[in-house]
Each structure stands twice: as structure tokens, then as C-alpha cells.
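Review form for a predicted model. The reviewer records the input and the model, then writes brief findings.
Reviewer: anonymous (R2)
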Amino acid sequence: MSSEQPDYISSPTTLPIPQGPYHFRNVDMAVFSLNAKYLKLKAICDRYLNQSSTAEFIYRPALPYVFVIYLGMEFQSTVEDPPIGWIPEHEVSFWIPIAAYKNRYDLTPDHFISFSPYLFLDDYYAIVLGREVYGFRKQQGQFTKLPSDISAPELDVNTVGFKNFGPDEVAKAEYLMSIKHFPDSTEQVSLQCNTKEKARELIIQQITEKCLHPLTSEEKKSLDWLEHQSLDITAKVWVFLKQFRDNVTPSKACYQNVLEVSVTVTDLHDFGFLNNGRYEFRLNQLESHPLAKEFGLTPKDECQDGVQCFDLQGLYWAQFEFEV
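Model under review:
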């Protein structure tokens, strides 16, 4: 198929879309989970993945959770010669664990993957590259607070959006979300390891203990996800809807494709559980960013000024390198 495609016409510097694959180094990652509504997550799968005629599988949520992931890292193309250098970025993303079925009648998944309908980051190159090459649903994010300790992370994020929609409303920088950590009196240094095999074992243990309250029989069928996708520290698979709106018929896509992308962890430097204590997720109610409504999140209360508060499970952190 590639021989039938035209050559990509790059700029003289190849920026902002250098050629892949891409290597990511100095990665700091923290992973959390939010309780979500299964039917809400299914609606997201139907909208972005199952609706396209290019999808080779039927995608359904594997578990009723959304994983919130913070990443701080640097990336560069692995094939540009001479290398153009490293590009730093910080991001926070929301990932749905997904089971892929060969058809709608299958009861056993063919494989397990992850999909991110929301991803906020602070680097222009990473936003443009991610959206154009893969179909990442990346949006602008400004971090007003970054984690100072990846084993007990806190962060604050702004984005450009609308508090309310209306004919006279103007998009502006708005507070979007925070992750807060409240240590307890028995705070302990997080358990650590530096081997992929042990890290994978500990991730399964941690998520099983902290997330898997009694599930329905249908949801229990998807627990194999714990042995695959996002809990495998050595390899992952992501799924995206890559599309471009047509300029002549704006309701149509001039290009559309559901694609799966493999990710490989090349080096694991350090890994551990997030420190004990309570974590809280705070989310501003922006009409342009209805995350709570789309995921089916249930707030425990309203903090102030329309900001909702949610219980957040702190899971694990890792420092590693990977390639896409």
C-alpha cells in the first residue's frame, strides 16, 4: 500500500511534523483511576471508533474506569539525519481501557487496547504531530503547577475554552483541572522496583486491590485487560480516529481511518506505588470540555465556583523510555 502513496512533502527543517518513529526519554509518569459509567464509555467508543466504516473491529469498554495519566518527557524523531534535537512536553490524558471484538456477536475479545478522548499538553509541536500523524485528540494545556515529586504528584491545568456557549461568548484561558494529594499520618515511601516483570506484577496487584470492586458478570469477562494493554509495562496498543474535515462539504471527512498504534517501552529506570494518603480530582465545569458528563463521573461535592471534586485512586508512577 505504501508504494501507492505519494511521498510526504516536508518543510526544509521537517518541523512541525518530523518523520517517525519517535523516541521519548526522561519520562516521568503518574497513573490514577476514576470511577466512570460503563454506558457513557460505550457511547464514546461508538462515537469515535465504531461509527467509522474503516473500523476493522467493534470496540467496547473493558472496565468502568477512566485512567488519568500525567507524563513529563522529551521526544525526537529516530530517523532524522542529522537529529533536530529533543522537544520537551508535559501532558495529562484520560484513557479508556477497551476490548476489541471481531464482530458485534463475539463474546470473547480479540485483543485489548486503550483510547484517549481527551489529552491536554503544553507543546505546539507535540499537539500538531500527534493530531496529524496518529489522530490523537490533543488540545492545548497550560500547567500552572507541575509535580515536584512524581511519587506524590500534584498538578494544575488551564486550557482555552468556553465557560458557556453563546453567540457573544469569547474563548479564553480557563482553569480546567487539578490533582491534589492529602498525605496521612502513616505516609510511607512508595514501594519501588526497576524490572519490567516485577513492575507488571505490582501494577496488576495495585489495580486489583484499589479499583476492582464487585463488577457485573459482563465486566468480569474483560478482566483479562489487566494482563494485557495498559498494565503491560513493556508494550501497549493505542487506537485512534484519524480524520480531516472536508473543505468543500464540511459535514464530510476527506480522510478518515481508525488505526491502532503499537508502543514499546525500551527502558524502565524506576517504578513504584504512589505514596499513601488521599488523592482528589478537581474539574471546572466548562461547557466546551464536558469531561464529567461524557465519562459519567459522580462528584462527591462541589468545591467552589462551579468546580466539582471527585475521589481519585492513586495507582503507580514510573520513569522510563519508550518508542512510538
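Findings: Residues 196-210 form the longest helix (15 residues).
Further findings: The mean pLDDT is 88.
Recommendation: see findings above.
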